[in-house]
Amino acid sequence: MIKRLLILLLAAQAALIGLLAAALYHGWRPAWQAELSAPATAVFYLACGLAVMVLLRLLISANNFYLSARAGSVTPPAHALNLFSAASLFCHEFHASMLTSSYYMLRPIGLRLQPDAQGLPVLLIHGYACNSGYWLPMSKWLARARISHYGIDLEPPGAAIDEFAPQVHAAVERLCRETGSAQVIIVGHSMGGLVARAYLRRYGAAHVARVITLGTPHYGTALAHFGPGSNAAQMRRDSDWLNALAASEANTQRTLISSIYSVHDNIVAPQDSSALPGARNLVFGAIGHVALGRHPAILRCTLQEIVAAVPSASA
User: Fold this and answer.
1) Is 114 contained in some domain?
2) Which UniProt keywords apply (predicted)?
3) pLDDT digit string (tens) for 84-105?
4) Largest CA distance in the chain
């Protein structure tokens, strides 16, 4: 469903670029434009329309950083930004968001079994308003490491988080069946980490050796107030659902979890909402929310956590 919605959104953006180009053509005719050929004129005004669209996307990204800064937690001195690192953070996050929404999510990864696979198989759970295409960079790293993996697409997009748990259960069973493994490793981005915890609450950890969350708002995020859907409401700060989830977990279950997050996350705010007591918390800086799925430092750290995981005694 998300892929179909994305195609419609991209088509709408293309139409808007055409309308902007036509409006500029009729309202702005610099003297030098008369010297251009007809094809060159069309390319020029379409490029102007595209530039306006990119500028709008830049403003949306900048607004996310502004909102997350307003609701943000205190940045540790070790991760303080300078002008260069702040610019790099913004550019990398904008690049990641453009790639994800315009390319990755058009290519859901599905089940990817590796010949001569090594280690435990990995189940990839995407976040809010995404699909398994988000994991395309991670999939390439896993394939190089010869690790079988399965990216699922959670449906419907706005459902309550507990409604996704049966889908995860079916995916875990399928991945175990297809690989012959008794257990899997779950990697969840953003809301995907909460979906993994909801799965553990309902089905237990018998088939899970490790859960790795990337930028998951374990204690909610202020920006969830701007998102539609039951799942967005559940991700608000101190929501009843989050409190009930935390109250249901035993400390031994938390030890299964590695929480990887950035103190400069532009969607999860306050950023220390991703710190989960009892879990293994791995903290980074100068990385945005969407970029967590493709940043080399995060991919390397995640792969290290995957390789280090061993089947638990409950297998």
Assistant:
1) yes
2) Hydrolase, Membrane, Transmembrane, Transmembrane helix
3) 999 999 999 999 999 999 899 9
4) 76
